Amino acid sequence: MPVSGALLNAFDTLTQERQEPCFVYDLDSLRKHLDELMAQDVVKLWYAVKANPLSAVIDTLAAAGFDFDVASSGELNQVLSQHVGAQRILNTGPAKSRQQLGEFLDAGVRTFVLESINQVRWLNELAYNQGIEVDVLLRVQLRWPEGERNPLGGNTLTPFGLAPEQWQGLYLADYPALNCIGLHIFQWGNMLDAAQLLHLWQSMLAPLQALCERLGFAMQVLDLGGGLGVPYDSESSPLKWQDVLGALRDIKRQSGVKELWMELGRYAVAQCGYYLDPVIEQKTNYGERQLIVAGGINHLLRPAVAGQNFPAQLLRRSTAEQVNYRIHGPLCTALDSLGQHSLPEDIDEHDWLVFMQAGAYGFTESMPFFLCHSLAGEYVFEHGTLRVVREPQPASFYLR
Ligand SMILES: Cc1ncc(COP(=O)(O)O)c(C=O)c1O
């Protein structure tokens, strides 16, 4: 993944001035990417704020025309603070308490993905008491019978949504404040093959349509969640947006819905982000090369939870032979590994590594407090210049 010369210069300046790990988000390239995603009339795009809730990132998505998938009161307040209107917000997530639903209604949110019978009951009561009607989608979790070919590859039970058997007992007329406009389904992740996505989506249509018939409403909207992938290794090819659009066009036609929706996280913002990490030292242990770096899963937890590394490069140019390293962070747990990487053999304690695809599920999907290391800084690169959002902070920033 090539990095522009201007951005490399910005990295150089930053790493000469500071010694702590930090994230840099390239908003110029993000804007270009988002414009490409928005230049179509096939799918309505929401941004899954959980991928990266930084204010400057939200601003850029809002300006590009994305609306916002918000999954907590914290995300709601962050999006509203960027002057995004509540009518541009969709509330998803399995843990919506009655209180949280009330907060969203009070803020003016009128579109909800509901994931349980209680959520249906609570939202109806709250909206009814306020004399308002809200649009809702029911989130469905599908399973395939044993022995049948399963396009998902497995039947892991999650708390996301409900089985059709659970939903079909619902009598929608009992909930007059809810306008049921469609269904939501999202049970796949980091998909890099549009044909496979199409196959997956197609195999879900029949059970979803059967559910709508049982419930007695026409599916106007089908929300296919997120799950569009980005390559985390050099062997994988990026998922082409035009191929995704082709698959979505087919699904729209086959399902007969008026609107398709997706909430993109990773595919929207991963590629704009970089994590800069100083090397502490290189050592050899039982014949294996190890690189010890200043920031590990305290700043980038994903490799430990998803078993997938962020791609890494050495910041400076080197013509030395590429060798295999295991990269380890500063925490006192063997879990603190950023994976195995092929990098030049002359890396030493003056060097920095750059981890790519760190714009999504980076800074806020981490465990920053363990061992009291510094919090990673966050910077944005916009109109060719670097701007600090928050300098790296010592543990005294949060310890009381
Ligand atoms: C409901 C919902 N929609 C969308 C997303 C975004 O997924 P992705 O980052 O794979 O696009 C998530 C991620 O967890 C989610 O929970």
TrEMBL record:
Cross-referenced CDD domains: PLPDE_III_ODC_DapDC_like (cd06810)
Orn/DAP/Arg decarboxylase 2 C-terminal domain segment(s): 23-359
Any one GO molecular function term: diaminopimelate decarboxylase activity
Pfam families cross-referenced by the UniProt entry: Orn_Arg_deC_N, Orn_DAP_Arg_deC
Cofactor: pyridoxal 5'-phosphate
Active-site residue list: C332
Biological processes per GO annotation: lysine biosynthetic process via diaminopimelate; polyamine biosynthetic process
Keywords, alphabetical: Lyase, Pyridoxal phosphate
Domain of life of the source: Bacteria
Residues covered by the Orn/DAP/Arg decarboxylase 2 N-terminal domain: 41-270
UniProt cross-references to InterPro entries, sorted A to Z: Ala_racemase/Decarboxylase_C, De-COase2_C, De-COase2_CS, De-COase2_N, De-COase2_pyr-phos_BS, Orn/DAP/Arg_de-COase, Orn_de-COase, PLP-binding_barrel
Similarity comment: Belongs to the Orn/Lys/Arg decarboxylase class-II family.
Protein name according to UniProt: Diaminopimelate decarboxylase
UniProt source species: Pseudoalteromonas ruthenica
